Amino acid sequence: MKCVIINGSPRKKNTWSVVEQVKSNLEAEFDEIHLMKEKIPMCNGCFKCILEGENRCPHFDKINPIIESIRKSDAIIIASPVYSMNVSALLKNFFDHTAYLYHRPEFFDKKALVAVTTAGAGQKKVASYIDETLRHWGVNKVYKISIACGGKDHLETKKIDQIAGKFRKDMESDKLSSPKFVDVFYYNLWRAMALSDDPLKADKEYWFETGLVNHDFAPQVKLNVFKKAFSKILFFILRKAIK
């Protein structure tokens, strides 16, 4: 198994100690990406990744190797401390560079684990934000570890081991979880927009070239009868609403 670790902390302190504890529970080959060392320029909001394609990003040479590492992995670990009740600037800047993945999700067969630590509060909120971002990328299942004070006492270590153990079993299985209804909604929203009268060029190319435009959801992920019906009805409504 291959697992890419994206470390959004500028230091190897509390957050990284949680990642190390998680790693000790996994039998995997790790590709560690420390965003502090990547020196990614700030996203300038040019929208080229969304409008023209991610290869048009002025920082493509910095972002693409990280995305390629995710593509080659079986699972993802994303770690961040809580800074001012949000993710670190390093991680937020990276996420800003991946805005196109909201329009063109692709990691439907990936599992992920989120590790967040704080010296005060906000850890659950920040973990939920990272979870939401990953699900917009298409990530199939996200596990969350959110800890105050770095996870140094016995109970926190036990908590880390329990969640890491579930993550390991899921990584090793061939099963993909059914998506949430909200994930089905966003999938069909971007799918319908690709079929609109005036679609974004990059979006249309992606949805048609991958064939995803023809599916209720990513074909490798099974929908139960209720979610399949929800997807079909929703897509019909969105196609009518979006011209």
Helix content bin: 40-55%
Class derived from helix and strand content: alpha/beta
CATH architecture of the largest domain: 3-Layer(aba) Sandwich
Q: Which descriptor suits the 3D outline?
A: globular
Top-tier CATH class of the largest domain = Alpha Beta
Strand content: 5-15%
Distance between the termini: 44 Å
Number of structurally distinct domains: 2
What characterizes the major β-sheet? 5 strands, parallel
User: What is the arithmetic mean of pLDDT?
Assistant: 95
Descriptive notes:
It contains eleven helices and five strands. The longest helix has 19 residues. It folds into two domains: 171 residues, Rossmann fold (3-Layer(aba) Sandwich), CATH 3.40.50.360; 61 residues, no CATH class. Helices cover 48% and strands 14% of the residues.
Helix-strand blueprint:
Blueprint: E1 2-7, H1 14-23, E2 29-34, H2 35-38, H3 48-51, H4 60-72, E3 75-81, H5 89-97, H6 100-103, E4 111-118, H7 123-136, E5 141-148, H8 154-172, H9 181-194, H10 201-209, H11 225-241
Parallel strand pairs: 1-2, 1-3, 3-4, 4-5
What would a concise description of this structure say?
The protein has helices at residues 14-23, 35-38, 48-51, 60-72, 89-97, 100-103, 123-136, 154-172, 181-194, 201-209, 225-241, and strands at 2-7, 29-34, 75-81, 111-118, 141-148.
